[in-house]
Amino acid sequence: MHGKTPLVFGLGLAFGTLALSPAVIAQQTPQTLERVEVTGSAIKRSEAEGPAPLEIITRQEIQRTGATTLNELMRSIPSLDILDQGELVSNSPIGSGTASFRMRGLDDTNLLVLLNGRRLPTNALYDSTGAGASVDVNMIPLAAIERVEILKDGGSAIYGADAVAGVINIITRRDFRGGDVYANYGISSRGDGEEKRTGAVFGFGDLDQDRYNLMVTVDYFKRDPIYRKDRNLSKSADYRRFPGGLDARSPFAPEGNYVDTSTFELTGASVQPCPPERYNEFCRFDFNASVLTAYNGADHLSTMAFGSLLAGGVKMSGELFFSQAENTFESHPVPDFFAVPSGTGFIAGRFMQGGPRETERDSRLFSTALAAEGNVAAYEWKLELGHAESRVTNNDRNYYDERLWRPATLNGSIDPTVNTNDPAFVESLKIRPTRKGKSDVEYVNTLLRGEAFNLPAGPMGFATGIQYRKQTLRDTPDPLSQQDLVVGSIQQAAVSAAEEVWSAFGELNVPVLRNVEAQLALRHDRYSDYDATSPKVAAKWNVVPELSVRASYAESFRSPALKQRFGAREQGAATITEREQCDQLGIAPSSPCNVAAFQITGANPNLKPEKAKTYNLGLVFQPFARLSGALDFWWIYKKDDISTLTIPAAIENGFVGRDPNDGRYLIFTNLQNVAERAVRGVDFDVQYRQPSSLGIFTLRNAITYTDSNRTREAGQNWTEFANTYAQPMYRNVFRVTYERGAWSGQTQARTTGGFWDTDQPHPVATGTRKVGSFTEVDLSVRYAGMRNWRIEGGVLNMFDKEPPFSLTNALDNQYSQLGFAELYTNRGRFFYVNVGYRFQ
Predict the structure, then answer these.
(1) CB neighbour list of residue 606: distance below 8 Å, 6 or more residues apart
(2) What is the mean pLDDT of residues 111-139?
(3) DSSP 42
(4) pLDDT tens per residue, range 574-586
């Protein structure tokens, strides 16, 4: 045990020492008012609305959105950010098929995702920058969810120091009796993207009467992909058909473009004749015209069992969750710089005879937990222990061993520009790289809560606990991938690391006055190499029955992801097209600026934790019974932000080399605690409910507006990124819900604000185009008038709107190059119908 562990235990028991004194125990009386626990506090309360801004999305609200995955549900929650690359692209070895939550303009590692209040492991595969080191929410079936609770003001003092932006707690169904079977079907108006879902829920026993309950669920979901070629916006990477668009088709053409080995630029000549329609300065290959997806397929199976038992005044429960996804992702045949015995000796080519590269991805999420809870005198205690793990295996096909491939192309045994090579010889050069990842978390949580003593304004509630968790990561790419010897792939780093965390926390709910309550919380986390104390102070003032004011302050402490500290070097393809950068590289002004390069990234064992402060100030109002709402201003400041240098910054500082094998430029970027970040904005949510003779109408509008998202590196000025590429200043959802008897329905308009079409900070260069706002309208109808039956149907994107065009996305290969930002999809109009039967 760590040398300072007594401090951890001492902090955890600080509140409990007072609470457990005999004099206080004697004063306690059992509570008669039913209290519940909500995300944001370990103290049970009689009402959900406390000092912290909390949004709860119920099962009924989820069903009305028509969403089939948690990832799609995010589009109906404006307080959550969207960056949907994992669902849109099939050529990402790590990210294809995955999805994660984001909030407040920060990346996904700043948001803590819980399942039934317990931690989940990060996705087992992520790169050395830390991108993707978060929970893959696509592994959690929407059908199993009872509600989603979103804490918006930071939860580090209660749940863990890494809850910088907030907490999302996914609550699954439980204490279910009877049976529920369902079948869902959906398809786009163009006849693709077909979705099928079927499942069942069975429950036995009444916890109050029978003293036990057991629930089992099973859910299967399958979705067919949508291909880029089948949508107008993404059908071709030649974007000259749009105003201001350029030709983004790849220089890695099957005909083989000769490369000048001194500058590594294309000469304009090719080995094989180039069809005229594909020649533009050099021969080009249209990667959007086949194979690549605009929306990935999915094949998910999940099951969950939850049981609870009352015995001797103690409630014991167990939970088992398993989810598996098996998907195949395709990308084009191998592109690379090939050594050939003609011309300049190097070509930018694509070996079509080898067939498309394929990745068979098997993802599994497993979670099990045991819990016991009961009462000692007037106090409630709880003990939890559990284990959860994520396993991902990538099996690749149609790649080549560099040690065999390079000699074969250099001596002419393989001509990479034709399809007539000896098939048997081609197969002899192939390899099937495999990458296996495993991420797991083990934990023990203890909790004691109750009322410490009575104040003049009411009883003071307390909660205290000690927690332990161990998280491990093992990522093992194929040995040749680790050595950068796989043709058509990138170098991949292995890692095997573990970290233990001891934590203790205490929380008080203090009734300062009859109309003022305060939340005081303190948490201490002890990691292997560092520790931190995270306080939180929040208060709510009920000014009048119709108006309340709330405010909070929280500090956070996010440890670097394991691979950020213990991983190795990785590289990815990049293209230098900016004239200023080409000048810095020494490329002659007379030469075209289109330079292929590798961006080198890597871990840093000396990284420090990121630290943050979160402020929130809000109003909760209900001027009359039918109208209610909330207005919250928020601000987050981070320091020691972990980031990589941008390619322009790396080039400017001379972090540049040349690959000894083929001469390609190497741009070295490195993880560093080099940045500060400041984000601020406002949430506004208002709802009006109007009963009438025609039924009950409910109107709701929710908007999140991000006023500023600034960052700066050491010694530099602040730079503003709000309202630039993929960082719109607002997301708004307007809903009208109708209920009358067995009928109900909803229409909603989901709007994403526009932004300047550049990923460079303000001030925006003169002439920069603006990407317009985008609105999709959904409609759903539900009928439950038949005994035990329910049926619902609807249409998403009812008016078949196409996303607004983005030059930045289209022309820069660090993005999806679908022609639009990863904030929406080009699926188009989508119809769905769901049928369910409930029996006792």
Answers:
(1) none
(2) 86
(3) S
(4) 888 888 888 888 8
